[in-house]
Target: Rhamnulokinase family protein
Amino acid sequence: MSAGVVAAVDLGATSGRVMLGYVGDGMLRLEPVARFPNGPVEASDGSLHWDFTALYGHVVAGLREAVAREPGLASIGIDSWAVDYGLLSGGTLLGEPFHYRDERTSTGVEAVHAQVPFAELYRRNGLQFLPFNTLYQYVTDGGLADADAALLIPDLVAHLLTGAVIAERTNASTTGLVNVSTGEWDLELAARLGIPASALPPLIDPGTPLGTVTGTPREQIGADVEVVTVGSHDTASAVVAVPLSTPNAAYISCGTWGLVGVELDEPIVTDAAREANFTNEGGVDGRVRFLHNVTGLWLLSESVRAWEAEDAATIDLPSLLADAAAVEGDVALFDANDPRLSAPGDMPQRIAAVLAEQGAPAPASRAAFARTIVESIAQAFAGALSTAGRLSDREIDAVHIVGGGSLNELLCQATADRSGMPVLAGPVEATALGNVLVQARAAGLVDGPLEALRDLVARTHPPKRYDPR
Ligand code: LFR
Model:
């Protein structure tokens, strides 16, 4: 097989990037092309949105640069965070997409559960309860009825580039409207909830060509490049690139969120799985991502944001974490998944309030705060790992941490210590690598099942090991 190059667009909740991926002949290498910030934007009425227009501008500029560097680019693949969408009418975007942390979803949850109790929903869609799952957003969205299409963020980018109107399957699974057994839209559920057909475009598997970039974006980017679907849910792409070292290894895809779980061939929708709030999200090649969302580095990034606002100066994260590692003695722990910590705001103050409820004093310094946050996340990881093992009937024997959290040595060591299992950290850019690998397989640059792709990741990006102490 020969080597080639593809472009990955990877949009995360705090930053986006465009990367070139060089693959083939035993090689797998990323080269950053563009990196740009992302985050919630508050509208004048207080609602939370994404600045999609700015993001899309960065994507097109990044792709133009990618083509300038590599005119022979084989394809483009797009992934992003899940659940959020944009509405289109007559080819125009009807406002900036809502951010999943906007509070409108609370009325959506009540409306949906009044029609369809959660236990029935879980049997149908297999999803853990997250108040922002797309179906809860759709039922509050007055614009949906008039829109020609509702497209999840990566599908929206693909649409603007190519004109295609589709729903990539891994991300569609996070809407709550895909049946967990059939992998098809649950039309009966949608009808019961009054969700129109515009929200349910044809479902397409990862690795499918959608057409070449056309119209204005073709002029801007400067080449007829094919757009190919990947695991467009960022977590699906990340799981593709976890170099799973044993059949019973678990993974944690750790960025804003920590997605803690195992890969399965069949979903688990038992009462026990529902009660533990474990999800069955669609993976690449029909695999099941059986996992639980733990609030991840959001707690730290929001705290840093608050401190930076207080100081009117930037904080150096590596030195904050080094100071946190040097904090002596036990620190108080809090429930990282406390729903009061989900919306943007003064995170240190909110965490102090949660600790006060438990009778624990607020940490005495920022370093102690950071230590409390990291240890609390690690504790939640350890709990979710043990539940994943119990529910899937596996003796989990190793934990792979991929994504930004894999660079956080304090978090990796604390996770090893608190779970009692070795942690294998990296690759940091698992999402972009998974995106690249699925495109590369579609282009014939690599072949085989996910295991073969993961072997290539393990050989080219050997993980760093943390043994429990
Ligand atoms: C991670 C992620 C999670 C999803 C959350 C919200 O970036 O995609 O998998 O639950 O963001 O979309």
About this structure: The chain is about 40% helix and 20% strand.
